[in-house]
Please model this.
Amino acid sequence: MGNNGEEWIMGRRDRRNDWTGTGKGISLILQLGLSVLVPVFLCLALGIWLQNQFSAGWAPVALLLLGLLAGGRNAYVLAQNYLRTEEARSRRKKEKEQFDLFGDWEIPGSGKETLSEGKENSGYER
Model:
């Protein structure tokens, strides 16, 4: 398989990483939507039930406002947690890159010392 196999695997890995990012985005949007909509609809349903049971005309409006406030708070907390997680992930990635001793150096004998433009390989190359 040689080169073609490696290119296929790398292409597959790149697509998987793209889908992972897309999946995270879709998941975050769904979580935000549900964290806002569920409290709104539950409070509105409770308000309509209270109005029907006790003739409380103010209940649907008051509980709808309460549901909107709760949903907004849920969305805020979820967004803050996501931002903190992404910030910590990028900080760990930067630290890992700083302490990576070999980085993208080519090690002689590893089978990856490709010579470009006729240059001789004298050991480690960047």
